[in-house]
Amino acid sequence: MRIKLLAALTVALLAGCATPPPPAPGSAASKVVVMGKLKNIEVGPMRVARENGFLTVKVSLNNTSSSNKAMFYRFAWLGNDGFPVADEEGWKTLTLYGSQSSILPAIAPVTQATDFRLEVQSQ
């Protein structure tokens, strides 16, 4: 009886430790790379469009905490082959106040950009 209980407990623990599946290609989650930690900040839906030949992005952000959070971010602009087509951006800072939602806008610096990656981290 103890062996069956131990086996059932082991299976339950292993099932709880399974890694989540990777995000679907092309989804908003697949565009975000967390560098370090991202605590109490949710990256939500993204809007992507091409305006005057430049790729534009608007990212929805939400502070799930009641305290202010500083977030650091940068965009990597990619071409059809998935490689960068522009110089690497420097890190930018954004303060999200307690329970605040915000939109983060960005425009690619070159017309060759067809995709992007958003790199984020918080304190």
UniProtKB/TrEMBL annotation:
CDD domains: DUF1425 (cd09030). Keywords: Signal. Pfam families: DUF1425 (PF07233). InterPro entries: DUF1425, YcfL-like_sf. Residues 1-20 form the signal peptide. It comes from the Bacteria. This is YcfL family protein. It comes from Pseudomonas laurentiana. The lineage of its organism: Bacteria, Pseudomonadati, Pseudomonadota, Gammaproteobacteria, Pseudomonadales.
